[in-house]
Specification:
alpha/beta; Rossmann fold; six-stranded parallel sheet; 12 strands
Length: 326
């Protein structure tokens, strides 16, 4: 049997797909499992032993449907992302079973999916409906993806995120202090209910816990990272994906905005505080919350007033303190 998976979006979402990948491996131990991913997310599965082959879409020079046509010997094809290009790729395989999902109110995508898929699952996650009714049930993305594995015939689910690290990864960050408060500096710290100045004040506030403070940063925040270097014990960037994940492994607690760092920290079982955007908080904080680790979910303030930013910093510091003392 050959199973083809497609996930062409973000790194964090592919990490959330790893329980489904492992579930399929357990259900079909003799199958060949191939995945098509993107340059942006391939690092999340390079060391994943549940996969027999990994294809990077951009490297092929083919469109998603063109890649699918090259994989027409598949028995099962699954779109792990609810977007058009994954649906097109899976549809083009013409596998006897073609499985995927989309959101309930994405009507155009639902019509397209009916052409591409043999099995279409619907997610009830919807930004507008969740804000209108905060109590509306929303499944975590991991749970939604495991339903795809069930549709493919898997009966026993694996729920752990899979993110293997190598000795080389760990050696690359062996100089970083252990049991640190590790903060990931991503662009969302710098706008819409947060700011560079407030981020600096947050680092100052975290000093009260007496733990080393490590800041990792995304390439697009390198200039800001150079300016805040004096406010942390270590500020590190330019790491490989594996080394960046290994830096989180050394932490006692991870603090981040809503980005792939949340799911890296979860995969490494690190307690995590997440500052979500104010907009769509009720959906995002449930669908993409830290998975199966101690965590605290905060919401950005509506505005950037000094009082609102100060209150947000106090909330985050209290959350970090609570996780450190748990």
């Amino acid at each position: 049997m050959k199973i083809v998976l497609s996930r062409l979006d973000r790194l964090g979402d592919l990490i959330l797909s790893t329980p489904t990948i492992h579930t399929l491996r357990r259900a079909y131990p003799e199958a060949e499992i191939h995945i098509v991913c993107s340059e942006q997310n391939v690092a999340a599965v390079r060391e994943n032993r549940d996969l027999d082959a990994i294809f990077v879409a951009e490297a092929s020079g083919e469109s998603p449907s063109g890649i699918g046509q090259l994989l027409r010997d598949a028995d099962i094809a699954i779109a792990l992302a609810p977007q058009g290009k994954d649906l097109s790729l899976v549809g083009a395989t013409r596998a006897p079973r073609r499985i995927g999902y989309t959101y309930v109110r994405r009507y155009f995508t639902r019509l397209r999916a009916k052409i591409c898929l043999t099995d279409l699952l619907l997610s009830q996650a919807d930004p507008a409906l969740s804000e209108r009714d905060p109590a509306r049930p929303v499944k975590h993305e991991v749970e939604q993806l495991l339903e795809l594995a069930t549709a493919a015939g898997a009966r026993e689910h694996s729920h752990d995120l899979v993110l293997p690290l190598t000795k080389k990864d760990r050696r690359a960050v062996a100089h970083l202090p252990k049991r640190s408060i590790t903060v990931h500096l991503a662009p969302r710290w710098l706008r819409d209910g947060s700011s560079e100045a407030s981020f600096v004040e947050l680092l100052r506030g975290l000093r009260e816990f007496g733990a080393p403070i490590v800041v990792t940063y995304a390439p697009e925040t390198e200039e800001v990272a150079s300016r805040i270097a004096g406010f942390a014990d270590r500020v590190v960037g330019g790491l490989s994906f594996g080394a960046w994940a290994a830096a989180f492994e050394r932490a006692a607690c991870v603090l981040t905005v809503d980005t792939g760092a949340v799911h890296v920290a979860s995969a490494l079982k690190r307690p995590t505080v997440v500052l979500f955007e104010h907009r769509h908080f009720h959906l995002n904080s449930r669908e993409w919350a830290p998975w199966r680790v101690p965590s605290y979910l905060a919401r950005k303030p509506r505005d950037d007033s000094p009082a609102a930013l100060a209150a947000s910093r106090r909330e985050l510091c209290a959350a970090v303190g609570g996780l450190l003392s748990a």
